[in-house]
Structures are given as structure tokens and as C-alpha cells.
Design brief:
single chain; 9-stranded antiparallel β-sheet; two-stranded antiparallel sheet; 11 strands; globular; disordered N terminus
Length: about 200
């Protein structure tokens, strides 16, 4: 299933921009962990569903979630709903990604909870390497989640078997703290993404 995202970007329209501005949730600041004088920046995780693991039947939806970087523990914490992974790639892996260079750095994996709908949410926490202590994410734009094979140690995030030209095929993604990455409409449904590279397509 393919969509002409480049045509939308060129021809665009006020209606698309209005949808984008309404759909993207503004970032907010919450109090940090107890004993920490720093704040945690909570951002919305947007997601792709024209991807391996989805059936495009009633009940399927774009996954969504929230993510925050905790500077006190140097970790990402968050939740998600509506996330489905293909049976051949059942593990949920986390990456830093730059849309300009198309480079990714693997951070690790977090548990994937199936059947996340309504109040049934998946939760994750992932400690980061010391080099990112204090939120030093310079050179990276997004934190993103991919589906990988069981026991895999991937060097690059997987693409999609459904739409082979899509690589990486991230399932969830959000701008990193301090990053300024424009949002774009993906040309279908309520799917949105982020990129500072106009030649970079959406992740599904």
C-alpha cells in the first residue's frame, strides 16, 4: 500500500497544516523525580500502522504513547497503546535517529505487551549509556522503536516487508529533548511523522 507523500508536501494546503497542528500534542514539562532539581520533558509518541503486524481491519489504529527522559536516572520511561508487531519480529527495540544523515544508534530493547487498547497500556523503562547523561543528544533528532527478530542484535533498524522501500520502518517515534524537528502529515488517516529532511518519507 503506497501513498504519494511527496505530492502532498509540494502541493500541501492549509487544511493539511491545520490537521497537523491540531493532531500534534504540545510538549509539556512535569516535575522531575523526587530529589532531582531537573524536569522531565514528556512528549507524545506518534506511530505507524501501515506496517507489518497490522491487518487494516476495524480495531486497528495508529499506535500512540508518551515518553519522557529522566535526567536523574539517565533513562527513557513511557507508555503506549495500539502497538502490534509481526510474529517474525516480535521484539521492540529502541534507537536514536537522525533524518538528515539517516543514521541510527541502537539503545537496547524493551518488553512488548500485546493487546494494548483502552486502559491496557504497555510500559517501558530503558537506561541509557553514560554518554547521554544529562540529556546530551546532540547530533540526534528522534527516539524511535522498531520491530526486530527474537534474539537479534541489529546494527540498523529493520524495514517493512509490506512496503519494502520503507527503511527504517519505525512503529513509534518522538523528537528528543532539545530537538526541533518539523512535523509532517503522512498522507493517510491520522498518521504523522517528523523530519528535517524533505527527501525523507514517513516510517510506514
Amino acid at each position: 500500500m503506497l501513498f504519494n507523500r511527496q505530492v502532498w508536501k509540494r502541493k500541501g494546503g492549509d487544511s493539511g497544516m491545520r490537521i497537523l497542528m491540531i493532531a500534534l500534542i504540545a510538549t509539556l514539562t512535569l516535575a522531575g523525580a523526587a530529589g532531582s532539581g531537573q524536569a522531565q520533558e514528556v512528549r507524545e509518541l506518534l506511530g505507524s500502522w501501515i506496517n507489518d503486524g497490522y491487518t487494516f481491519q476495524p480495531g486497528d489504529r495508529s499506535p500512540r504513547g508518551t515518553i519522557a527522559y529522566d535526567p536523574a536516572s539517565n533513562a527513557f520511561r513511557g507508555t503506549y497503546v495500539g502497538l502490534k508487531l509481526p510474529s517474525e519480529r516480535p521484539e521492540l527495540h529502541v534507537w536514536l535517529y537522525n533524518t538528515q544523515s539517516r543514521k541510527a544508534q541502537h539503545l537496547g530493547k524493551v518488553p512488548h505487551k500485546t493487546g494494548t487498547v483502552g486502559k491496557s497500556k504497555g510500559e517501558f523503562a530503558l537506561g541509557l549509556p553514560a554518554q547521554f547523561k544529562g540529556g546530551k543528544f546532540q547530533g540526534w533528532e528522534l527516539v524511535a522503536f522498531s520491530a526486530e527478530a527474537r534474539g537479534a542484535f541489529p546494527r540498523v533498524p529493520s524495514g517493512s516487508a509490506l512496503t519494502k522501500e520503507q527503511k527504517p520502518a519505525f512503529y513509534l517515534y518522538a523528537p528528543l529533548p532539545g530537538a526541533s524537528v518539523p512535523g509532517i502529515y503522512c498522507g493517510h488517516g491520522q498518521d504523522f511523522s517528523f523530519t528535517s529532511n524533505q527527501d525523507h518519507t514517513c516510517f510506514d
